[in-house]
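pinging the channel bc i need a second pair of eyes. not urgent but kinda urgent?? the chain im working w is below, pasted from the shared doc
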Amino acid sequence: GSKNPRPLNRAPRPVTIESMTGLDVVIAQVLEAGRLTQRLLAEDARQISQVAGCLLAAARVPRTIHICADGDLWPLSELLASRFRGDDEGLLAPARAFPRDLDARQLLAFVNHDEALLVLSADPASRLGPLLRLAQAQGVQTLGLLTRETAPLAAHCVAAIVIPSEDIRVVSEVFLALGHVLTGLVSQGLGQLQSSVAPPQQPAERAP
């Protein structure tokens, strides 16, 4: 008998979102995060520079940059630690994200004098206050990415950036953008340091 013809390869149909309501909300959050990031870069450049300077000072030694986040922000600590390490481009700076659900004294067991501790907090009931107080008393460079609700934690930070928003999705986007800025500044600073200490190249000998 005749063979069945092979089915034609058809391009997959695009998947569409039936209701645009959810998409509109996400787009609005992303746009708001972009506006807030631009505003912070323009108005809070000094605080951003201070945080970046402390991180760079730790990375130069090198000392470990510890990153700790509360609540829904915890995955960001892993991502930023990876960015500071330069996992895709070779070692940039030693960095680690703190494990979840440890109390302040357990967390401080990971931190040594003169290392940097960057906290990400948007939870008014944050457990990070005791950690910052103890770390600061031990000579740790305490730094914060905070919101208006967690701004009091800045009192225990050498330098902090406060995001004027309580929307956790917007805050997450802004923290992520600031993380890219901070890792970029640290990378640039380390590159300049390496260039300044590189041995001068010997002039090529002329052939007789």
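so The mean pLDDT is 84. and The radius of gyration is 23 Å. — does that match what u expected or am i reading it wrong
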